[in-house]
Amino acid sequence: MSAPGKPDVPGSSDRSFLGDPARWNPEELLVAALSQCHMLWYLGLAAAAGVVVVDYRDEPTGTMSEHPGGAGEFTEVVLAPVVTVADGSMAARAERLHTRAHEKCFIARSVNFPVRHRPTVRVA
Predict the structure, then answer these.
(1) CA angle 37–75–22, rounded 5-degree value
(2) Distance of alpha carbon 82 from alpha carbon 79, whole angstroms
(3) Short-list 102, 106, 95, CA closest to 53
(4) pLDDT, tens digit, 9 for 90 and up, residues 82-120
(5) Per-residue confidence at 77, pLDDT binned at 50, 70, 90?
(6) How many other C-beta atoms lie within 10 A of the C-beta of residue 24?
(7) Are 103 and 65 a contacting pair, CB within 8 Å?
(8) pLDDT (tens digit, 9 = 90+) per residue, 17-26?
(9) Can you list the domains of the chain with their CATH numbers?
């Protein structure tokens, strides 16, 4: 995949379809897009709410259903962000912001399967 002014993203099919596991496949890119969209909305909302995020990591997973003949679809994506905040007084707000970030994410609002959240909030 290439676009003017951006680095190329070498793509491939999934390993189960004999793809190159060192390259991004479309399914991974969709899960990554959902994760990134949520993170960017979350960080913006956190800054506006005075929640100081010192670390943000996510381990998103996608579940797919495959049908005879090779067709299939996602049945859900689960985002599992681990957010570290600067102070314990921010933890409850930090937790609640995940709901607002989900409501704002254009990509999550556009897919036809559930995008669930299992956030963890830690204090630095």
Answers:
(1) 65
(2) 10
(3) 95
(4) 999 999 999 999 999 999 999 999 999 999 999 999 999
(5) very high
(6) 15
(7) no
(8) 878 888 999 9
(9) 22-123 (3.30.300.20)
Contacts of 31 (CB under 8 A, 6+ apart): 60, 61, 62, 77
C-alpha span between 95 and 117 (Å, rounded): 11
Residues 105, 41 contacting (CB under 8 angstroms): yes
3-class DSSP assignment, residue 86: coil
Question: How many residues appear in the chain?
Answer: 124
Euclidean distance between CA atoms 94 and 65, whole angstroms: 33
Q: What is the DSSP letter of 67?
A: -
Q: Is the pTM of this model over 0.70?
A: yes
The model's pLDDT over 60-75, given as tens digits with 9 standing for 90+, comes to: 999 999 999 888 999 9
Q: Which residue has the tokens 């049908």?
A: 67
3-state secondary structure of 90: helix
Is residue 121 within 8 A of residue 91, CB to CB? The reply is yes
Element (H, E) at 4: none
